[in-house]
Amino acid sequence: MDKLKLQILPKVSLISFIAGLVIVISSPGWGSLAASASLGGGSTSPEVWANLLQGYTNSFTIIGAVIFFLGGLGCLISIIFLEMQKQ
Questions:
Q1: Which of 16, 21, 45, 58 is least surrounded by Cβ atoms within 10 Å, i.e. has the fewest?
Q2: Cβ(62)–Cβ(30) under 8 Å?
Q3: How far apart are CA 84 and CA 87, in angstroms?
Q4: Predicted TM-score (pTM) of this structure
Q5: Is the pLDDT of residue 31 over 90?
């Protein structure tokens, strides 16, 4: 990898790692907000509300987990390349 990529990769990886963690932690709140917004101020049965809430929460959790994993993988790869360059 060229030098510019090795300078950018750790920073981007760390930012995505932290962003993924924040998304996973915030997913219940964001899922609740998204479920409320999808109803548009109307009312619905408790079963539909529970399904909407679970679906949106799961979506945010999965997206956050993927970003978290990719950020962690990028951090590991950048550490490996930096150690290889020192040798």
A1: 45
A2: no
A3: 5
A4: 0.83
A5: yes
